[in-house]
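DM from R.C. (forwarded with permission)

"hey, sorry to bug you on a friday — could you get me a structure for this? deadline for the figure draft is monday and I only need the backbone to look sensible"
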Amino acid sequence: MRRLNYCRILATTSLVAAALVTAGFGPAGAADPTGDWLVADGVANIRVAECNGAMWGVISWEKVAGGVDRNNPDASKKTRPTLGMPVLLEMKLNAEKEDWEGHVYNAKNGKLYESSIKLASPDQLEIEGCVLGFLCGGETWTRVAGPIPSSPSNNPASGSANSPAHSAAKSAPKAGMAKTTSPKSSHKTTGQKTAAAAPPADPVGDICLLPEIAGAAHEGGLK
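My reply, with the result:
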């Protein structure tokens, strides 16, 4: 009887473990690089999200606000805000290496590098970049938020006028600009409760809806 009960306990434990893996709590769901990451020198956060089957990353917070992409070789981009600017570009999953590979943009010199990102742990993201296959270097970023849910724009049916992605695109603030609201009247009626202060608006939001990323996905990739 004891042997039978022991076998039943083992069988139940195996089923629970399998259910956890299927639900995303085991190894199969652990490798998710989406979310906000603090770069090694602490000057910015990078928001990583999956957009149209590839990982992208943009600057979602700056220690010193108001930066512009002054070192970009494209004269038309020298004045674009660095807040909301893509820095991880169209990184595709390499299942064999368990990483994502694509390009990284270095705003310090305005150059693109071949790059890869890989989770060292749920809260540490390793990024490496190389020039023409050599002069490689890397650093480790620390998680500050996330993972984040999939963007509505990843839904194949999201192109309709009434889709969540379409609605979000209409209301999403542009990169580098926080959403503002018109001032409300200060008059109160008797017994009216004072409304709680709204949290600060996220100036970046869903990065898949940013024009540069949405445009690259629509055109079939980075040009």
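R.C.: lifesaver. Residues 2-23 form the longest helix (22 residues).
me: no worries. Residues 1-30, 158-192 have pLDDT under 50 and may be disordered.
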